[in-house]
Amino acid sequence: MDLKGRMENFNKRWNVTSSESYEEAFKKFKQRILNVFKGIDRHVTKESVAVFCQYYGIHEEWKSNLYSGTSWSENIAKRLINENDEKEFYRLIELIFTLDISTTQGYTRQIEYSKDLLFGEVVKMVDLSNVNVAITAVKGEVILYPKGEKELDGELVDYTLTFLNKEAGEHFIQALQFYQTKNPVKSAESLRRTLEEFLRFKLKNSRGLDANITELQKTLKADKRDVQVRNIILQAFSCIDQYFNENSKHNDGDIDEPENEYIIYQVGLGLRYINRVIN
Fold this sequence. Notes:
The protein is mainly alpha-helical and 279 residues long. The protein has 2 domains: 1-131, no CATH class; 137-279. Helix content is 63%, strand content 8%. It is built from 12 helices and 6 strands. The protein has a two-stranded antiparallel sheet. Helix 7 (150-163) packs across helix 12, helix 9 crosses helix 11 (227-247) and helix 11 packs across helix 12. The radius of gyration is 23 Å and the shape is globular.
């Protein structure tokens, strides 16, 4: 059931305008996540609980039952409850998915609890909530980043992560993470490295970005790609390379959030084209 969609349609029919503040929307999102992660400590290995506590610098506490001899943690759940900073809460969600979460089955051998099931539930909560966060997963790694246009995020961010090679993918993930933490200069540098590494991968060489932009043009020409499309690609990539050199490579740029977002989408569009036309 698309509950959010139905309620939005109801509001349109009745001309209802929501008066909910962003703070209220985040509180609702937080409670939904707490519902999803209820009892999370019981499904995480003791080693991962210890790693979690060490990362946050909190005292590791365990409760025990003297009769059964069992012990359990509430460290992760308490940290979730006590975290009220929006960005840190998103970081916390991402960190939990790096932990060793056990998979459990019921009597019918049907999976009742797993990392994949948790991810699916969190995705639903993100879609249901009116908060500035998007979530995706690639090669087992869950990433949260500021929400842009849903269609663009799906086609130019989420999809891009599915075909990048290891080196380029790591830099693209870093670019999204730096964007999330409002560090656009480092995000731009990571995007430059993404494009550089993916061109090396596709063109099968170890040249720098500037040299491979020229090599890309030769490859596209040899493949008889349309001359105007080749010119657009050359101009776009050359401008991006110049932008990186002036604003990112030497760490003296003044890149703001809208520019950072635009470059992410522009690089994603270029990567998508390269992936489709070069085997």
